[in-house]
Amino acid sequence: MLKKQNRLLTNYEYGKVRRLGKKTNSESFYCYVLDTTGFEGDKRAGVIISTATEKSAVKRNRVKRVFSEVLRLNFDRIKSGIWISLYPKKEALNKNYEEINVEFNKILQNIFVN
């Protein structure tokens, strides 16, 4: 789990990232990235999965734990001032940690190359 200062916490923060950030698609998730450099210091990240993706809370929580762990282990690779929100798709329910981690690393490379 990320430190509280490094998590997106409110609906306002998630909405800001979604409205103003750059959207990137992956096979298993949507990734919104907002560069707040110059405005707010800390890098932040969060995961949202809706009941429309999966009705079972057990399955949703498993997916959220996997994505949170991927974020936690790759958090040091994210530049300061970047906010990231991840929205898992239904396809993520059938993926394991390694597959999601590979997809997230590809997204990180694309974000920082462009």
Give structural notes.
The protein has 114 residues and is α+β, with helices and mostly antiparallel strands. The protein has one domain: Ribosomal Protein S5, domain 2 (2-Layer Sandwich). It is 39% helix and 19% strand. It is built from three helices and four strands, in the order αβββαβα. The chain has a four-stranded mixed beta sheet with strand order 1-2-4-3, with helices on both faces. Strand 3, helix 2 and strand 4 form a beta-alpha-beta unit. It is globular. The model has no long low-confidence stretch (mean pLDDT 90).
Topology:
Layout: H1 11-20, E1 22-25, E2 29-35, E3 44-47, H2 57-74, E4 82-88, H3 97-113
Helix pairs in contact: 2-3
The general outline is: globular
SS content category: alpha+beta
Strand content: 15-25%
Give the tally of structural domains: 1
Radius of gyration: 13 Å
Average pLDDT, all residues: 90
Quickly count the helices. 3
Q: What top-tier CATH class fits best?
A: Alpha Beta
| Multimer state | single chain
CATH architecture: 2-Layer Sandwich
Order of adjacent strands in the largest pleated sheet? 1-2-4-3
Pfam families: Ribonuclease_P
Keywords: Endonuclease, Hydrolase, Nuclease, RNA-binding, tRNA processing
GO biological process, one term: tRNA 5'-leader removal
Subunit structure: Consists of a catalytic RNA component (M1 or rnpB) and a protein subunit.
